[in-house]
């Protein structure tokens, strides 16, 4: 690129109508001139050849992505991860903010993903290592999306559960049980105090435990638990399936007794979720398979908060995400970034409930609560409830007892001396996280 | 895990009915005992808690994923990439083959992805770095999928193009042109000798160049080129959009004159492609945005051949993929793995045409052909045709001239001495790759 070519991909914020742009933060490592690398990054993701041969025209003013800010730091030891790359020259670690004109693709999730996570981003000359760190949308762009139907407040109203976290549990054994004993486990967990008993993300509509049968059994068990406790409950059924079955399975599961639905967001695709959202009559909950494949490493891929935002935009009321502690291999600051991405203001889009999960139990509740710093989160043990040595009702009770202690300002360990379910949980799971 | 727990996740191949399993090759780095790490990997992706509390049962024989083979090599310098992780102990680099019972989830792409690229794989204790290297299916599993409708042979018949590669071109400028001048570029490229003029993967249905208008203009231009050359041509329209618009846009584009359709596979989702395949009346071509985000690094993520296989399975007739040369940041052996994944036997699933692309021109054709080692590939320049100094018709002609030279056993550079379009291409693009 000539200096003039490069300049066409830079702009001052004040020179742009920011309503026409989404903003992208990238970190990358490049070989050669960082300023030229950033111009290539803009060119490749927007108008890579901005004029016809022999025609005096320039599509860049309207159609080019433009660098708004750039910070480059020499990296004398070279690329942090060895990769195939044509680039030569001194290596820099760079952070850029880019304004990308959304009129190039419109308010469509697949086209948005193609622009911001596509060939232009991951095959830009000189940049073998790059991570999309964050994404921000103008309100006029967000207004084209429905976002969560119920959101945090709607879910709380459905459960009549206020001023505390929402207590989920993943029914275990997750794979292998037929509907009747599976429903019995759900019933026990509701009786013990869970708000929401859920299918594992791996348990969907299978011949050895068909969704219709399971939803009917869990629906009965849920209503029985509601009658006996006088408290509202949710059975969260996993309808993850081929996209042309999502709407039919929504109807089937809800008719039979599910009152919230789980979808594995990336495997199904965010656009399919947006389609389902238009039809949904119950809260939609996201699970996180596949996301780690592109979000774990600090130097490459896509930061998980980007996908948290997109899941919220697509219409999920709840986003389950990898939680705290080294077991889930996600730095604490990243979990908190994702929690914030659920709850922070997002134009007309409602907040969704963050559920940072992974190997939780009564022993981890206080830590999660302190880290999140508010009651607006979901807590989702699996074995911490269903592997409790006294059974699932006791497992669920141990969670509620832990919360009662925290809410009353009593040390959880002290409270356990008079609450055997909690004591058993601390003993069984206390050392695990 | 106890030694007995671990043993429940190992099996001899001869002890299994292999029709019940898909086979997965993983490479991973773990801290601690590799044999136990591999057992966890199986447990987490299948039946993580294989019995109820207080019930004498074991779901592992039917539902557990099982290690078939394991090879561990000490890695005295520790993990190759620093990551958050609970694991401690000596580090090993490990390769395993795992048999995963597909009855756990069925013949459904989202559930398959959840099983083999999900939480169980990427959050297995002791394994912060893992890559799914390959996947193999029994024929009975494949039989549930349609696969390509046309495949390599069907595409050749549509074009009446045999015994040579298929010549694609990405119309450029990719973003910014209205339909009429865009169609004129397509027309020029067909006249010059392209088989297929295509929309860029970033150009879909946008208000400044609506798909209906574009397909009509390109359809007219295509028919005109066919009349004038007496040769069949394809306009490949990009219908990437929200999944509930794929079928309507298929119909709209085909009615107006497109005779093949481009879909950005990952942004739309493989399952949505499978849905579209059921309805499609023309060849479906995959583009590769997003895939690099999880496939570039040797130590982490998902090998791109896994997604090549899945795109073929979902029903694509053609798979465009990052091609040869350091510009595309993909090692040569990986490109060849993806080419093979398109063409090798796959039970009842037809072969699809591999199109290894990226910064191609008349100057790179011979190298691509020699590396692929057969004529069964597509060649897809962008600027190599539409940025040719003599214009797109000359750009297309330069590609055909290069092929004529190769097919006649004449050195391309020699052939250029009597073919000015080829000479201009070699001069303009020759040093680029």
Topology, element by element:
2 copies of one chain form a homodimer.
Chain A: H1 3-7, E1 21-31, H2 34-45, H3 60-63, E2 66-74, E3 91-101, H4 109-116, H5 119-122, E4 129-136, H6 139-142, H7 151-159, E5 166-170, H8 179-192, E6 196-198, H9 211-229, E7 234-238, H10 246-256, E8 260-264, H11 265-268, H12 270-279, E9 284-287, H13 292-295, E10 301-302, H14 304-314, E11 318-322, H15 332-343, E12 353-357, H16 365-372, E13 378-379, H17 383-386, H18 392-408, H19 412-416, H20 420-429
Parallel strand pairs in A: 4-10, 5-6, 5-13, 6-7, 7-8, 8-9, 9-11, 11-12
Antiparallel strand pairs in A: 1-3, 1-4, 2-3
Helix pairs in contact in A: 8-9, 8-18, 9-10, 12-14, 14-15, 18-20
CATH superfamily of the largest domain in chain A: Ribulose bisphosphate carboxylase, large subunit, C-terminal domain
What is the helix fraction of residues of chain A, given as a range? 40-55%
Number of separate structural domains of chain A: 2
Main β sheet profile of chain A: 8 strands, parallel
Family (chains A, B): Belongs to the RuBisCO large chain family.
Domain Ribulose bisphosphate carboxylase large subunit C-terminal (chains A, B): 151-429
EC number (chains A, B): 4.1.1.39
Keywords (chains A, B): Lyase
